[in-house]
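Re: folding output
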Amino acid sequence: MSKSQPLPPEEQAGEGLKTRRAANDAYSNIHGGAYVIRSRGDWEKMWSGKDDIPSIPEGIDLQREMMFVVATDDAIVSKLEIGRVIENGGNVSVFVKQTMLGEGCVRNKGDDRSGLDAIVTARIDKPIKFVVEDEDAATCGPPPKAEVSCRVGAAQTWAPKITAKAGEVVECELASVATGKYTLVDQVLSLGDVPPASKSKLTFSKGSVRAKLSPDVFGTYAIRAEATDEAGRKGFGTAMVEVLPKKTRDVQLQLAWSDTETLDPATPLPRVLLRVSGEGPKGQRCSSEVPVPGLCDAKTRGSYTYMKIPASRRKLPLSLLYLDERATTGASPCVHVWFNGERTASVCEHVHRHAEDKWDLGAIDTATGKIIPPAPPPPPKPPPAPPASKK
């Protein structure tokens, strides 16, 4: 119901009518509105469009009495309540208090029609005015907070972002707190994003709030926390575990994807091909589709590519070939590089690309694991000067 304009003082004065409340469950299916019931026709009008019209409740005599019914379909209203009913010289004024949901509050499952009220009073054949007054309920506070921290082995330090090695045991713990009106009813840890080749699983040791993980391939593992309160409100947290490859002077690359959080899981990612070329203009090109022994060992697992370049002292051109179009928004390809057990480079591209376009990353320095950016294109040549005019 929408808020009414306040009545002038002369219309707020008058004789208060005696009322009694009618059971709300008799009107649970009506549409939102304000209704005056003085006849069978008024009763049927209140149920307009409904297949089943119930009987007028027993004990209500519409010859001598009338009913006022108010209801709302507005989800932000937590309660409607008819208060004073005043008769003055010209009409009858029905005062309705409309309580709005407090900040952060939700309707309880059993309160689907708490936004409804009905009363019965002596019949008076005068015009009826409904006066709706808004009232804000107290805030219910913010949703619960959920945080997750991890550690390697039996380390004393817990943190939301850690590094580990493949095969080490990582332990994670969920901590949550309800700071609002509602109490916590559920807390759970789960394994989110993992490198596609990983078969690691969480094993739980203390209910659903502490778990262990043994990462099996290098890449980034996301450990997610979720806390739910009795109103169904949720809080989320994430810990990131970056697993480093074994310490080696081989250069190890991973093609991954960023900005995938809002994508439909059924939407395929663009197909791309990570390539490294031998030195010189006639150097061979190695990829997961065209292996070149001694130049690279590349494997594609799902939408990820893992490439190993043997230890050497070369500067090898690195590129990404788009096999499908990539829109300006959406998932972005990222190339991460590890060398000697440390991440040495991480680059992503976010621009629009057509199929058969190439992203030139530069050259990978196999002695350091660093990417040498490509040289900027030469400036355009100035246009030729116009020929001198002949006199």
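--- second protein (sequence, then structure) ---
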Amino acid sequence: MRKRAVLVVLLLAAISVAAPCIDFEAGVIRGGGLSFLFGSYLEAKAAMLAETGSTSPGSLGRSLATLFPDWGVGAYGEARLLSWLSLRLEPRLSFMGASRLALTDTELPFCRYSVSFSTLVVPLLARAKLNLGPGFLTVSAGPFYGAIVGEITTVDRYVSTTMKGALTTDFGQVQFLGVSGGAGYSLPLGIGVAALELRADCAITPATGQEGVLGGEMFPLGIALVASYGVRFGGGAR
């Protein structure tokens, strides 16, 4: 899996070298929204708390998903292939995770639990542009590589106490692949181009960690509104 990260870096370098010969755009990106998490990692926790929330034989509690923030910051390099089509490499550092509320079988809340982590997300996006008014309508889609960076933090908040835990991971120890896509609008502004997009990053392979270090599978999903600003240069810049 670490070889994939090296390939991504080499691809970015190759695009940068080719920049003087093509219409190239480079800039920064930042966004925020909501994060979700699916898979056996949280389901095992939900099953345990369902039993804890039982107040009578044969009944179980349940867990409800609650809102959890997603935010990220990064940079991008974009090479124009056709007048309406470009290829963008967009490494981002994102904060992701999920939160749930555990209820007893009588619908009383007794624990709010969450898991969170920072992730390096590197999408390779095909971006189509359509002239619309003073700017362009944009649609993006493509695969991404993801790797958890640093600690995976868990928090359990009961009525009378709060329990926290942290699992420290080396870079590349917990990785996953996914698809990224979205739509938005870009507008020439000053010396560059400003854009606003609604974007989703969805894992399609589980983040499990080497030798099952997590004890379960995680499928992260982030939905965010992202803003970017970049400057064009190279052979076709205008």
